[in-house]
Amino acid sequence: MGFMDKVKNVGGQVAAKAQQVGTQGKAKLDEVQAKRQWDALLRNLGAAVYAQQRQGGSADAVSAAMDALDQHAAAHGAGATGAVAVEAQPPAGEPAMSAPAAPSPASTATAGDYSIEDV
Questions:
Q1: Is 57 in a helix, a strand, or coil?
Q2: Is residue 99 one of the residues assigned to a domain?
Q3: Separation between Cα atoms, residue 98 and residue 112, nearest integer Å
Q4: Residue 26 within a domain
Q5: Is the CB of residue 62 less than 8 Å from the CB of residue 52?
Q6: In tens digits, what is the pLDDT along the chain, a chain of 119 residues?
Q7: What count of other Cβ atoms lies within 10 Å of the Cβ of residue 58?
């Protein structure tokens, strides 16, 4: 194999690698853009819910925002949404609602049935 054949071979490998990197970069860019769109749709949903709950806004706006989120999720898949299970947080100034804790075995004693371990 001559010198020019080696140069052509290496040039072809470099071109293939550059194309692969370009494809990966485009995929990452598309993912970032989909995440930004998702975030904007969530922001719109939050604004619609706030307007409905606090300012007498329309339920239609909330439904439209939910539909837009559903369409985005269907088009881009759950991975592009950045969706994460989030526990609902109460508004500021309102107490948090939590499920009652299961009673411990020591706390199931009846009245008058106490020991030093209960203290």
A1: coil
A2: no
A3: 30
A4: yes
A5: yes
A6: 688 888 888 888 888 888 888 888 888 998 999 999 999 999 999 999 999 999 988 899 999 999 999 999 998 886 565 655 555 565 566 655 555 555 555 555 455 666 677 66
A7: 11
